[in-house]
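Private note to self, pasted from the team thread so I don't lose it. Backbone tokens:
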């Protein structure tokens, strides 16, 4: 052995003493494992085979030590000297070097024996790494795997999460028959058993034919292995799985099955070996990881697409809302909408009806999100038409209700709406309120008068909508907002509440503009919630309309 010889040569250089080690095997001649020189090897050959190696070494003026080299016993012969510690150290080092060499040789031998398997794993890794669609390379993958383990028939089954079926996406050697989908409830099928166990199962002969008559119809062995990915604890949906701890050991999470590989039809008719099982399990894990990565990529792309679409919907929704300047120059207005998500169900409308009258409407579709936004768009469109066609708020609101009746019935949604018309010639505000709780006339003295609801929200009732009248004095302002403002929550889940909003509005008695009042309202909300996420949409519209002198 080169390593032992090198060790003995180093010993000679360090101590100036020759050394050799002979290995003994029962029934065989002694074998030289290593020596510091060929001369010393010849000198000690007789001692390697002596019945009493210690007596022989003493007769030759040498030191001898028995060493165990693993499966055999050997004798270490060293020239006489005065360094017994070095001799003992050398005797301990030789077995260690021998053991490491054997492990190296064993690993090398295993690498040679498993060259095809290693090449397959490398090839599959490259194949899967070059695509985001495992399905597109499934045929190639199945063929490469089958060739390596000596199979002539195979199927690649992938789980369909919606149907709970294992569906074939690639087959090999089944040109004359179509492989059916397999239900996870099909008891005794080898693919189902492998899927539920998240591992490998092999069967042979009659048992194989019963468990999968398509692949094993002509007899032989079958090998099925689950295509799995390691459980990361966090799935695509964010579900968190807590690992099980037993004592000081954290047990690994169960692999997540995504499909099954089934192979059969070995040419030699022999069962699949343990090595075949290990190889196919490794491939199944590779494929499972690739499938999982592909699903993550698809989910990321879909999320990005959804974000773009929601951003576009947000922009479109805001463009539907009128600019406050539409009621000028006779009136001043400020309005703002902040959806809890990209889009929402709150809306407002401002209308310049004529020189003396200004229309102000606010609405809140139940819920929030995309569906609410669709109903909101329909409600806003209907309101924009009907407030221009009928100056009477009750007539306009009733027309909006009729326009939305079918949509609200099919979606089981509802809308609170308050529509008010400021008439400075008559010195009054005429309004109709269908279930909207937060509509006020705020006087110059800070007094807040509610524009009370007269019927439930649209979508709950067909009761007649009555018109109400309230006086309008110099310095009065209309302040309408949705319940997202009063229901805004802080980090302790405390509501802002309507009382806090009205108290703030009551302090604004110095002729503040609608813009200043709107800014103060939203600053109050932001100060209350801090960094807490919104739970509902926010909308508010504030309008004032000074009296004009008429000749």
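Design output:
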């Amino acid at each position: 052995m080169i390593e032992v010889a090198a060790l003995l040569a180093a010993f000679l250089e360090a101590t100036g003493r020759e050394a050799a080690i002979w290995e003994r095997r029962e029934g065989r001649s002694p074998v030289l494992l290593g020596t510091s020189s060929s001369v010393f090897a010849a000198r000690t050959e007789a001692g390697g085979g002596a019945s009493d190696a210690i007596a022989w070494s003493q007769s030759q003026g040498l030191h001898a030590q028995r060493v165990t080299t693993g499966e055999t016993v050997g004798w270490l012969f060293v020239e006489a000297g005065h360094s017994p510690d070095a001799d003992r150290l050398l005797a301990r080092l030789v077995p260690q070097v021998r053991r490491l060499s054997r492990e190296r040789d064993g690993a090398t031998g295993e690498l040679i024996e498993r060259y095809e398997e290693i090449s397959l794993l490398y090839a599959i890794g490259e194949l899967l790494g070059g695509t985001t669609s495992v399905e597109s390379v499934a045929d190639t993958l199945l063929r490469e795997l089958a060739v390596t383990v000596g199979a002539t028939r195979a199927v690649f089954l992938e789980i369909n999460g919606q149907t709970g079926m294992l569906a074939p996406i690639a087959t090999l050697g089944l040109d004359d028959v179509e492989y059916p989908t397999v239900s996870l409830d099909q008891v005794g099928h080898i693919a189902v058993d492998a899927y539920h166990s998240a591992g490998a199962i092999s069967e042979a002969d009659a048992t194989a034919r019963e468990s999968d008559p398509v692949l094993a119809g002509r007899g032989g062995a079958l090998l099925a292995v689950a295509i799995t990915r390691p459980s990361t604890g966090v799935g695509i949906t964010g579900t968190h799985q807590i690992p099980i701890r037993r004592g000081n050991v954290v047990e690994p999470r169960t692999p997540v099955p995504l499909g099954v590989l089934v192979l059969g039809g070995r040419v030699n008719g022999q069962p699949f070996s343990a090595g075949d099982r290990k190889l196919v399990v490794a491939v199944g894990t590779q494929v499972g990881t690739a499938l999982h990565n592909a699903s993550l990529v698809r989910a990321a792309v879909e999320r990005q697409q959804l974000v773009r679409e929601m951003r576009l919907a947000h922009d479109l929704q805001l463009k539907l809302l009128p600019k406050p300047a539409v009621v000028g120059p006779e009136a001043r207005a400020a309005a703002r909408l902040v959806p809890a998500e990209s889009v929402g169900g709150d809306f407002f409308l401002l209308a310049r009806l004529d020189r003396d009258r200004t229309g102000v409407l606010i609405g809140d579709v139940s819920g929030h999100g995309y569906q609410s936004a669709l109903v909101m768009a329909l409600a806003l469109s209907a309101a924009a038409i009907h407030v221009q066609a009928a100056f009477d708020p009750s007539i306009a609101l009733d027309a909006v209700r009729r326009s939305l009746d079918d949509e609200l019935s099919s979606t089981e949604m509802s809308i609170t709406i308050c529509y008010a018309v400021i008439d400075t010639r008559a010195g009054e505000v005429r309004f109709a309120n269908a279930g909207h709780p937060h509509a006020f006339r705020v006087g110059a003295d800070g007094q807040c008068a509610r524009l009370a609801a007269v019927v439930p929200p649209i979508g709950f009732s067909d009761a007649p909508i009555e018109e109400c009248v309230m006086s309008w004095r110099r310095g009065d302002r209309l302040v309408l907002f949705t319940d997202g403002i009063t229901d805004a929550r802080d980090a302790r889940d405390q509501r802002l509440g309507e009382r806090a909003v009205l108290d703030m509005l009551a302090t604004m008695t110095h002729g503040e503009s609608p813009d200043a009042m709107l800014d103060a309202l939203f600053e109050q909300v932001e100060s209350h919630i801090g960094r807490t996420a919104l739970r509902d949409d926010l909308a508010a519209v504030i309008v004032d309309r000074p009296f004009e002198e008429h000749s």
